[in-house]
Amino acid sequence: MDERRSIRISKYLAKHLRHEPERIGITLDPQGWVEIDALVAAAAAHGFRFTRAELQQVVATNDKRRYAVDGDRIRANQGHSVDVDLALPVAEPPAYLYHGTVERHLAAIRAEGLLPMGRHAVHLSPDRETAIRVGARRGKPVALSVDAAAMRRAGHEFRLSANGVWLVDHVPAEFLRFRD
Question: Which of 54, 87, 100, 127 is surrounded by the most beta carbons within 10 Å?
């Protein structure tokens, strides 16, 4: 499968496993899982055909490891705007985590901190380089440092998704460093 096809399938999965499952007539279970055969059939019924083998290749080769397969089921690892509970356990974060954004959002972040913005959680990266790549998707990137150790001491809970993205409900501005 060529890279363009892989990207198209990955974007289709993201849209329907994270945001609009009902658009193609699938229902995610409470933890975000759906039967692979049901997903493939629903996609085909809505004009986007892919094989189970293509789906498995996309899951296996996705550089961001966005999807998980468990037996005959698939789900997105995080980033949902639909109501799911990924049942991720609370985890002890490293001392610092990072968030990628763009300059135009800094004033709001300084005032309100980091908010999930229509998602279930704020996404944090384990390293500055990943945060820069995330921010670069929307313009000139800025990587913010998050004092995760201080947040944890203050009672905030962190969860770690299967693909290494740290999730937290909110990052108050006092735990952010805007410049090194």
Answer: 100
Q: Are 131 and 98 in contact (CB under 8 A)?
A: yes
Tokens of 41: 């059939």
Dihedrals φ, ψ of 56, to 5°? -65, -35
- The Cα–Cα gap between 12 and 1 comes to 16
Instruction: Give pLDDT, residue 180.
Output: 43
Q: Is residue 63 part of a domain?
A: yes
Task: Read off the pTM.
Answer: 0.79
Q: 76, 105, 140 — which closes off a domain?
A: 76
- The crossing angle, in degrees rounded to 10, of helices 52-61 and 36-45 is 110
Domain's final residue, options 22, 47, 76: 76
Give pLDDT, residue 8.
96
